[in-house]
Amino acid sequence: MPIKLAVPNKGRLNERSLEMLKRAGLEIENGGDRLLFASVKNGNFSVLFLRAQDIVRFVQTGAVDAGITGWDLVLENGNGVELVREMGFGKCRLSVAVPESSGINSLEDIADGSRVATSFPNMTKQFFESIGKKVEIAVISGAAEVMPRMGVADFITDLVSSGSTLKSNNLRELAVISESQAVLIASKNLHSEKMKELEELANALESVEIAEHKKYLMADVPVAVLDEVRTFLPGIDGPTVMNIAGRDDVVAIHVVIDKSQIYNTVNKLKKLGASGILIVPIDRMVP
Ligand code: AMP
């Protein structure tokens, strides 16, 4: 039986999830937006496209074996799932935000009986109980940020990423309730064989994430400057150095480097007389 893996069918997490799974090596047969199921040519998986909110419930009940969704949704909808891996994207935080004009500068300033609009009632309730505040929760399904202006609530709790939505609605972030990002989760009672395979997928996803910060650099370098090149291009175990047929004054070097180092490295190599510099992306890095 293939592992039933649920992936968000739209929204922020959809594209990145699919891209990472594909780069991890799963050949997912894509059939457009309305597709519910996709088979995977290689690997023992079948992919289901579902709403990110529903994925938590389906994984909890075992209707699907595993899924990619937001950690915020896992926390909000009761745990009962196994966290297999943080995916490293979709990073955001559930925060308390107040109108800039409210005069509220800290959590202590929030009066008992204040109304908070949120689509995360459980986490919000827990948070305010933990700090000993009695607040009234107005549950909404979206657009929390307009609720104070509409007079529906005194303040909100909502997901914040860049903070620009809060700013454009004249709201100020007061406190972070929880950090979140996309996660790979599994059913608690998953058969050990399936769990093993899921862990292999998690390893493959890790190799994709590591590779995203790296590039593969190739260059032809004069032999005379090789020692100097080694001082700033350590790579993983130093650059791989290869002879070029018919040349004894120049060698080819190959090295994996951090994306952030490319600009300076290329400049240094050029100054030392390197030529034929190529920088190519890496799909995966398996240690
Ligand atoms: P921002 O303006 O970048 O702070 O984004 C805030 C808006 O995007 C809010 O409406 C949030 O509900 C939503 N949002 C931000 N990050 C995420 C995420 N990782 N997953 C789902 N919704 C998010």
UniProtKB/TrEMBL annotation:
It is found in: Cytoplasm. Its cofactor is Mg(2+). Feedback inhibited by histidine. The keyword Cytoplasm applies. Pathway: Amino-acid biosynthesis; L-histidine biosynthesis; L-histidine from 5-phospho-alpha-D-ribose 1-diphosphate: step 1/9. It comes from the Archaea. PANTHER family: ATP PHOSPHORIBOSYLTRANSFERASE, ATP PHOSPHORIBOSYLTRANSFERASE ATP-PRTASE. Belongs to the ATP phosphoribosyltransferase family. Long subfamily. This is ATP phosphoribosyltransferase.
